[in-house]
Amino acid sequence: MASEPRQQSAPVVRPPVWETYGPADLSAVPVFAGGFINFGYWQAVDLESPLSEGDRIRSEQDLYRHVLDSAAPGGGRAVEIGCGLGLGCALALEEYGPASITGVDIHPDQLRRARDANARLLESEPQRLRFVRGAAESLPFGDGEFDCLYSVEAAQHFPDLSAFAGEAARVLRPGGRVAVTSFFTVDGAPAHSDRLAGLLDSFASGLDIARPVSQLSDALAGAGLVDVETRSIGPQVWPGWDRWLARLWEPGTWPRNFLAAWEQRILDYYVVTATRP
Fold this sequence. Notes:
The chain has helices at residues 15-21, 53-71, 87-96, 108-117, 119-124, 161-171, 191-199, 201-204, 213-222, 234-245, 257-263, and strands at 77-81, 100-105, 129-133, 146-152, 172-185, 226-232, 267-275. By secondary structure, the protein is an alpha/beta fold. The protein has one domain: 3-Layer(aba) Sandwich (Rossmann fold). Helix 6 links the parallel strand 4 and strand 5 (172-185). The longest helix has 19 residues, at 53-71.
């Protein structure tokens, strides 16, 4: 039986996260057409042909599908950490048939946008969809409240992966699944942080945090989760993302350096999964 939700004060938002997802509204930037705010999973898109906005939106949806296939939310209670506009929550609800979806975001502006974007679904499925403010490191839920926890391209902002892993373990019931996808450094070499700050403004500003993927997998294992697996999906992410960026950004501009960081074996894109015993 799940315990009562934790009573919490408003979470503290790091300044670059506050600006990027508040006044700046990253979802309105053309490279994130469709509003999902992720780099995309491009395996089903023909990268040799001119890319359309429809291709871009499909790539974003397919990244969600790839993660949801690993998280196995069907029939259970699912929670997304870092839900943004909530479009991934809506996709999960409509395509995967969970009993309910809770979208969590730390930014109040994102929650407002999520409720606006999903107003009809919230009205028609009030028992199955909700949006809640909370931090990944201190979730406002009771113990064992969920069967599935997933996060799509948000963990690069989490200030404390160990605290997040502990909360994931706490809010999942036994047998519950975790699936996290985002970009991390390939290993813990100290030089990676400076190199990424030199290549990519999002790391230089502190919006994205340079950490090895092993820090997340070790944190999940340390929190008592089992069957921890890490898979690179870089080949399905970075070339397509760069092809899309080329429509809007010239070679040599900082967003185009994501591909260079991957090719130089500094950064990669991963899916990390685990199970609550």
